[in-house]
Every structure is written in structure tokens, then in C-alpha cells.
Amino acid sequence: MTPRSPAKAGAQERASAAAAAPWTPASAGKQLDFGTEYLLRLGDDALVLGQRLSEWCGHGPALEVDISLANLALDLVGQATLLLNEAGDGDQLAFHRDVLDFKNCLLVEQPNGDFAQTIARHLLYTTWQHMLLQRLTQLGDQFLREFATKAVKEIAYHRELASEWTIRLGDGTEESTRRMAEGLDWNWRFVPELFEVDDGLQAAIDAGIAPDPREFENDYRTAIAAVLAEARLEPPADQRPILGGRRGHHSEHLGHLLAVMQFLPRTYPDATW
Amino acid sequence: MSGHDWPLWEVFVRSKGGLSHRHVGSVHAPDAELALRHARDTYTRRMEGVSLWVVPSAEIVASDPDETGELFEPAESKIYRHPTFYDIPDEVKHI
């Protein structure tokens, strides 16, 4: 074996964010390695938002919209599969973890409400996710870089579609304008959490595997304001931010979502399909 | 489900470079931009295409079914119009 230079060894260690300590059931409730923690944050965002969107299946406002929303859901569940399998056993993580161990942000677990509220949530989340993924493609973790290179194209479409619908509903009828404004108002207080940097995220930023979201907060605010201006909507007034999802402090809505999602594999552990 | 107050759009997909767009079906959408997105989500989700057209269905000018006789039947007896009297080389595709 040829000796590796220290720099190269460092790059090797970072080849997988989760290589140091993959998630196991014994990790529940424990402090996680920052790489695993970061994979869970991204993976849980995608899983929970994908599950939320899939609730629309068969209930969309039109057949074409129903298919659109199902496609978006499938993109996100696919992303979650990649991320959670990198963090540990994906099925174990998705179906056998309790609510306190979920690391998703509060925005993605918010209820669908009406179509406008779903679009508001999707605009606010995927605009952030798109800016994050663009930066992840440039960073040091090989898995996350490759993941981001694939996912950024999917999410660019999500962001565009959510923007198009926001503009049409905002600048539509009296009813659609009212509903779009109410949908934004519901979700607005969960935006600050997207830009919160706690110790776990700071460690991932310092290690060069995660972008610092504060670097693109101004771009984000500008981009959202531009869509809202085209939609002839006023940005909602800033409300008291609600934080804590990344630490497992979730709203009541996540427990109900998990109950539906996890029911079958927990009740019939040997089920196959 | 509602959405049927939206106009209908005919969808054409080019399956790969060099081939023509082919009619694959239709979607409802409130405007052209969303018609393209609905067409993408409905008809190209299994890698069916590299290019999409959408056309307002109302803009299609169709032949009258009552005129089928005078429009199409005269072609039935014109076998000499078919290019079947010479061989097509095997390498020539898509004819």
C-alpha cells in the first residue's frame, strides 16, 4: 500500500458524509455525527414533503394537476431514498423512527390546506432547496455532490412550477388571490428556520460538506419577492418565527403524517409488495 | 374534479432528435405555459420525449366526416401513387 498524504486522507474521509457513524435504531434520541445529521435533515425534508404531496393523489383540482403533484411527490421520495440509504437503512429510518428523531424543517410538515396553501409551501421550500442544491454541487462531499447534481434539475422544475402557479393564483380571481395570500400567510412563519445555523449545521459547514444558508438568504428573499410582485401579492408581514424541527420539536401535524405513512410496515413487519 | 372550464390543448411529442413530433393526446390547462407543463408531466414522465408542442385544440381545423367519401375514397384506386415499384435500401429508416 502506498502511504496517503494527510490532505488526501482527509478527502477520503469526507467521501461519504455518513461513513463515520451510520444511523442505527440505537442512535434514537442521541447526538449524531454531523454528517449523518445533515443527511437526515435533507432526507427527512424530502420524505415528509413527498408524503405530504402524495396525499393529493386522487384529490387534485384537475386531473392534470393531480398528475403534476404526484410527479413532484415521486421526485422527493426518490431523493429521500438516496439520502436516507446513505445515512443508514432507508426503510428503517423512514418507517421505524419516531417523531422526535425526525430532523425535517417545520415548513415541509405543514398541512396541504387547499391547493394554494400547498403551492405556497412548495414555492417557499423549493426556492430554498434549489439554491441549496446549486451550492451543494460545488462542495466537498462526493455523495452529496453527486446527489445534488441529479436533484438540482428536478427541483429547478418544482420551483418553476410553484412560481407559475403562485403567479396565476395571485393574479387570478378574487377568490384565488385571497386563497394564495392566506396560503403564504400560513407558511411564512416557518421560513426563518430554513436559515437557522445551529451547532450541528455549523460543524457540517466547517467541514465543507454543507453550504451556509445565510449566504443566500438575501437572494432567497429577493427571488420570493420577485415572484410575489409578478403575482401582484404583498409579501406577508413577518411573524414570530417558529423553530425547532431540526431538533425534533415538531408540530402536531408530523405525528399524524407518520401514523399514516408508517402504519403498514409497523403493523405487518413482514409485509412485502 | 373540476378544471374542465380550462381549454383543451393537443400534445405532440418528438421522441428523439430527427423524428417528427407525433400527436400523443391532450390536456386541459388555463394557458399555454401551463399546458406545456401539464403535457410534460402527463406524457413524458417515462422518458418518451425530447421536445413538446402544445396547440389549442380549438385552432385545429378538421375535415368534415360527411365529406369522407369525396375527400378520401378517390385515393383508393390510385395504386400508382404508392412508391412500391422500387426497392428501399435497408439502411434507410423511418419511411
List the helices and strands and how they pair.
The complex is a heterodimer of chains A (273) and B (95).
Chain A: H1 6-13, H2 34-54, H3 63-87, H4 90-95, H5 106-109, H6 115-136, H7 142-170, H8 174-188, H9 199-206, H10 217-230, H11 252-267
Chain B: E1 8-14, E2 21-28, H1 32-43, E3 51-56, H2 68-72
Antiparallel strand pairs in B: 1-2, 1-3
Describe this structure in words.
The complex is a heterodimer of chains A (273) and B (95). By secondary structure, chain A is mainly alpha-helical. Chain A contains eleven helices and no strands. In chain A, α2 (34-54) runs antiparallel to α3 and α7 (142-170) runs antiparallel to α8 (174-188). Chain A is globular. Chain B is an alpha+beta fold and 95 residues long. Chain B is 18% helix and 22% strand. Chain B is flat, with a radius of gyration of 18 Å. Classes of the chains: A mainly alpha (273), B alpha+beta (95). The A-B interface holds A 60-68, 71, 161, 164-165, 168 and B 1-4, 6, 27-31, 33-34, 37-38, 41-42, 45.
Could you list the spans of chain B in which at least 5 consecutive residues all have pLDDT below 50?
none
Mean pLDDT of chain B: 88
Give the amount of beta strand of chain A, in percent. under 5%
Residues in helix, % of chain A? 55-70%
Q: What is the 3D shape of chain A?
A: globular
What is the rounded Rg of chain B? 18 Å
Helix/strand order of chain B, N-terminal first:
EEHEH
**Helix-residue proportion of chain B:** 10-25%
* Percent in strands of chain B: 15-25%
Number of helices of chain B: 2
SSE succession of chain A? HHHHHHHHHHH
The count of β-strands of chain A is 0
Average pLDDT of chain A works out at 92
Largest interface in this structure: A-B, 14 and 17 residues
Main sheet summary of chain B = 3 strands, antiparallel
Number of DSSP strands of chain B? Answer: 3
Query: So how many helices of chain A?
Result: 11
